[in-house]
Amino acid sequence: MIGRIEYGFSAELWQYSSPGGWYFVTIPRKMAKEIRDNMQWQEEGWGRLKVIARIQDNDWKTSIWFDKKNDSYLLPVKAEIRKKCKLQNAKKTQVTIWI
User: Contact 87/11 with Cβ under 8 angstroms?
Assistant: First the structure.
């Protein structure tokens, strides 16, 4: 993506503990620290940064959210992407984001 900073990582898909909870991947802490150190000024409410995400060949516009409890950013993975990519809870997947 032209004019954007690319980050690639492998992470486990997990579901928030509430019934019907959202699914996320957690950005590795070292990478999250680099992102926050350099781009916190771009965050909007609740530590949100707009990104373009890719899993397999599927790209979508979304946001990552800084989670103080995990000291990292969380990337929500919507149902459409999980179905297209046949993602399973607690399984690692390769993710790319552009900020």
Answer: no
**In the chain, how many domains are there?**
1
The CATH code of the domain that includes 47 is 2.40.30.100
Query: What pLDDT shows up at residue 25?
Result: 97
- Chain centre to alpha carbon of residue 73: 7
SS3 of residue 33 by DSSP:
helix
Query: Distances in Å between the alpha carbon of 19 and those of 22, 43, 57, 95?
Result: 9, 29, 29, 25
pTM of this prediction exceeds 0.85: yes
Asked whether residue 1 is assigned to any structural domain, the reply reads: no
Which residues in the chain land under pLDDT 70? 1-2
Sign of CA dihedral 40, 30, 67, 71: negative
Domain that holds residue 38: 6-98
